[in-house]
């Protein structure tokens, strides 16, 4: 271990960090100064001494990743990005939380250079960090599996800062348990144990021993207590040694409990909830600056020698980067095929001819869309090595296992059913939907590989916060949500999604795809994989569906298309359906046509894709002149009103389901061809097509 130095300039830089945190929140009128003040030494130490990074190249493949799970303390990150030379300026720090600034209230991925993930909802960042650590191991397995530990250009570390709130959120348990099980030795979580949250002393709601909790998971655990002497002493050397020890531990994820005093050294508000999420006030800021030996009248004051000293980390980063580049070039020269594959996957480009591997399904066959999805995954396994994933303990139900592919698991934990190794492909999240969502985000954020995760559609509720963040960050995560309606039958209303489709469609930037048959399912996967700027959820059936004649891959990609045209090619009524209800709409069309009512069936697997088409296409599919319309879906009506208009009808389910065979449920709840045909006639009647007959005198 190299000799550790902590100079007077380092100490001064840390105090400048505290002052900037106070000034920024004071000017903004809101924010979270306390944690940024007390974590100043830890953050500065990490960026200046511990973490491998290059401020002049924030996307360097070989960099360590830093996740600020306690995103409310965004200044903890912003100020280090400023001091290190990532491009943030002092003016950016001054403009904290203001319109158009590069320093929003919580860090936002893609908005500020150097921010690896969007954090703020507590606990999510820990999950992202776990996902990044898993992705790093998978990447190494794809491109450099035989290198000795620590010698590969793909070896890097994931660092995460977490707060009391992060640890309290249930998602932290899900992802931390899995991280230990996966033996992620490339992950370190530093827990800022300051015993304060918004409601002041955490004793009011927290009494567990967090250290023993992480020991029980199987983490490598250390404690650095800056209060242990009775005085508050920021022993940076002890923290440095603890951080270095985590890098040396390669068989377990590492957890450091750092005991701090929030808001130190503010004389009146330190160690209180008042400094957690509010400005200190002029008097307290002045008093604190006086303690730090600063001029209270000066704000946003960064001495040139401090900035020059801190910016030297960029020089060191470039040197480390250059050294890494040598090993990277050696690897590329020794592995030209893998290097070409790495380049393609890094750019999220699909290989030439990949879609030819997609299966096609025979018209007239009967197959559930979940099973069809499983066959698609099996077919894609050999052509898309970047695609990997699994389920929250529902592999057999979700059909998410690529046949013959090993599980991603330490070898001692492989099972007879799921053999595997640390570089495997099939993920096992356990019954941890929320954790799965955050981990998938971390995998996507890490770069390169393309993750998917499965559970029942009804349990998308358990992962919704992570799904929302995937949409916010525009991450190409794929959700395989099966058992998509009352069609799952006997399991009953607790497992039958009713409100979920439109609830998920309400998330901006999330594509919800509900294919009508097996060929639409293959087309849905093809389209989703082409999109690299947003997440998508596939809503798939448990029950078998007929494979239709006339399905269109292009039509699926456009979100909606004419599956069955009216006999006259000039429809009097249009039936719009998704998923398993397309079969009902087709049967209803036959009934209406037999009564002389020309009827078109539109399959609309993805509302978002359809709405993204130009008006000319949308009007070709749904002619404005045809106002007699019916939408049918085994869920709430909600958004279908937009498509059917004032004269239209929606055949839907505005209540919970029941436990019975699915055919019985569809009959009892009126999701039938006869009901849809009747709804079409009702729509026609509103428009004056309901003509009476002469009945005599």
Which terms summarize this structure?
22 strands, five-stranded parallel sheet, elongated, 697 residues, 26 helices, single chain, six-stranded parallel sheet, alpha/beta
Write a structural description:
Helix content is 41%, strand content 13%. By secondary structure, it is an alpha/beta fold. The strands form six sheets. A six-stranded parallel sheet has the order 12-9-13-14-16-15, with helices on both faces. A hairpin with a 2-residue loop joins strand 4 (196-197) and strand 5. The mean pLDDT is 97.
Strand content: 5-15%
Query: With helices defined by DSSP (H or I, 4 residues minimum), what is the helix count?
Result: 26
Major β-sheet strand ordering: 12-9-13-14-16-15
Main pleated sheet: 6 strands, parallel
Distance between the termini: 108 Å
Report the average pLDDT across residues.
97
The tally of strands reads 22
Provide a brief overview of the structure.
This protein is an alpha/beta fold.
Topology:
Elements: H1 8-28, H2 33-38, H3 40-50, E1 65-68, H4 74-84, H5 90-94, H6 124-143, E2 158-162, H7 164-168, H8 170-181, E3 187-193, E4 196-197, E5 200-201, H9 210-217, E6 220-225, H10 236-248, E7 254-259, H11 282-291, H12 304-334, H13 336-346, E8 366-367, H14 369-380, E9 387-391, H15 395-398, E10 407-408, E11 420-421, E12 426-428, H16 433-446, E13 450-456, H17 460-473, E14 478-482, H18 500-505, E15 511-513, H19 518-530, E16 536-540, E17 545-546, H20 553-557, E18 561-564, E19 573-577, H21 581-594, E20 599-603, H22 607-611, H23 615-621, E21 629-632, H24 641-644, E22 649-651, H25 662-668, H26 673-686
Parallel strand pairs: 1-2, 2-3, 3-7, 6-7, 9-12, 9-13, 10-11, 13-14, 14-16, 15-16, 19-20, 19-21, 21-22
Antiparallel strand pairs: 4-5, 8-17, 18-20
Helix pairs in contact: 1-4, 1-11, 1-12, 3-4, 3-10, 6-8, 6-16, 8-16, 14-19, 16-17, 21-26
């Amino acid at each position: 271990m190299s000799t550790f130095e902590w100079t007077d300039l380092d100490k001064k830089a840390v105090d400048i960090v505290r002052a900037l945190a106070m000034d920024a929140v004071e000017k903004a009128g809101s924010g979270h100064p306390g944690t940024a003040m007390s974590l100043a030494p830890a953050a500065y130490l990490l960026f200046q001494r511990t973490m491998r990074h290059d401020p002049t190249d924030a996307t360097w493949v070989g960099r360590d990743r830093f996740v600020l799970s306690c995103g409310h303390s965004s200044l903890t990150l912003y100020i280090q990005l400023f001091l290190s030379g990532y491009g943030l300026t002092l003016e950016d720090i001054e403009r904290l939380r203001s319109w158009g600034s590069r320093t929003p209230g919580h860090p936002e991925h893609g908005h500020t250079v150097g921010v690896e993930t969007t954090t703020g909802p507590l606990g999510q960042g820990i999950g992202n960090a776990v996902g990044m650590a898993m992705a790093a191991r998978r990447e190494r397995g794809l491109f450099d599996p035989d290198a000795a530990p620590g010698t590969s250009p793909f070896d890097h570390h994931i660092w995460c800062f977490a707060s009391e709130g992060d640890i309290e959120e249930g998602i932290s348990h899900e992802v931390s348990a899995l991280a230990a099980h996966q033996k992620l030795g490339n992950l370190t979580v530093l827990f800022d144990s300051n015993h304060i949250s918004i409601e002041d002393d955490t004793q009011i709601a927290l009494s567990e021993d967090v250290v023993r909790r992480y020991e029980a998971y199987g983490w490598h655990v250390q404690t650095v207590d800056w209060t242990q002497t009775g005085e508050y002493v920021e022993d940076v050397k002890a923290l440095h040694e603890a951080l270095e020890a985590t890098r040396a531990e390669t068989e377990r994820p590492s957890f450091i409990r750092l005991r701090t005093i929030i808001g130190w050294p503010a004389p009146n508000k330190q160690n209180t909830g008042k400094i957690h999420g509010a400005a200190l006030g002029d008097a307290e800021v002045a008093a604190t600056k006086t303690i730090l030996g600063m001029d209270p009248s000066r704000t946003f004051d960064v001495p040139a020698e401090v900035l020059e000293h801190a910016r030297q980390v960029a020089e060191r980063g470039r040197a480390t980067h250059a050294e890494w580049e040598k090993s990277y070039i050696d690897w590329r020269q020794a592995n030209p095929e893998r290097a070409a594959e790495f380049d393609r996957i890094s750019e999220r480009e699909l290989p030439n001819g990949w879609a030819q591997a997609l299966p096609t399904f025979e018209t007239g066959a009967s197959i559930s869309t979940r099973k069809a999805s499983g066959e698609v995954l099996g077919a894609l396994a050999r052509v898309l090595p970047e695609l990997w994933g699994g389920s929250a303990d529902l592999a057999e139900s979700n059909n998410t296992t690529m046949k013959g592919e090993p599980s991603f698991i330490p070898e001692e934990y492989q099972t007879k059913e799921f053999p595997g190794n640390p570089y495997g492909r099939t993920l096992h999240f356990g019954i941890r939907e929320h954790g799965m969502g955050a981990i998938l985000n971390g995998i996507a954020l890490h770069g390169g590989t393309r993750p998917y995760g499965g559970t029942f559609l009804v349990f998308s509720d358990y992962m919704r916060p992570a799904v929302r963040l995937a949409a916010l960050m525009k991450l190409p995560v794929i959700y395989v949500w099966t058992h998509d309606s009352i069609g799952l039958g006997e399991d009953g209303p607790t497992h039958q999604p009713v409100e979920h489709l439109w609830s998920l469609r309400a998330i901006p930037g999330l594509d919800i795809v509900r294919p009508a048959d097996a060929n639409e399912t293959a087309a849905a996967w093809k389209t989703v994989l082409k999109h690299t700027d947003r997440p998508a959820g596939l809503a798939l059936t448990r029950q078998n569906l007929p494979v239709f004649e006339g399905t269109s891959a292009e039509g699926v990609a456009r979100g909606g298309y004419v599956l069955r045209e009216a006999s006259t090619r000039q429809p009097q009524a249009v039936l719009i359906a998704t998923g398993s209800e397309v079969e009902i709409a087709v049967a209803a069309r036959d009934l209406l046509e037999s009564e002389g009512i020309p009827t078109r069936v539109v399959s609309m697997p993805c509302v978002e894709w359809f709405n993204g088409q130009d008006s000319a296409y949308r009007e070709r599919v749904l002619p404005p002149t045809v106002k007699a319309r019916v939408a049918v879906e085994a869920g709430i009506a909600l958004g279908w009103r937009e498509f059917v208009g004032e004269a239209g009808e929606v055949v839907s389910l505005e209540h919970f389901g029941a436990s019975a065979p699915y055919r019985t449920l569809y009959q009892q709840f009126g999701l039938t061809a006869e009901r849809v045909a009747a709804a079409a006639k009702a729509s026609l009647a509103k428009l004056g097509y309901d003509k009476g007959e002469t009945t005599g005198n």
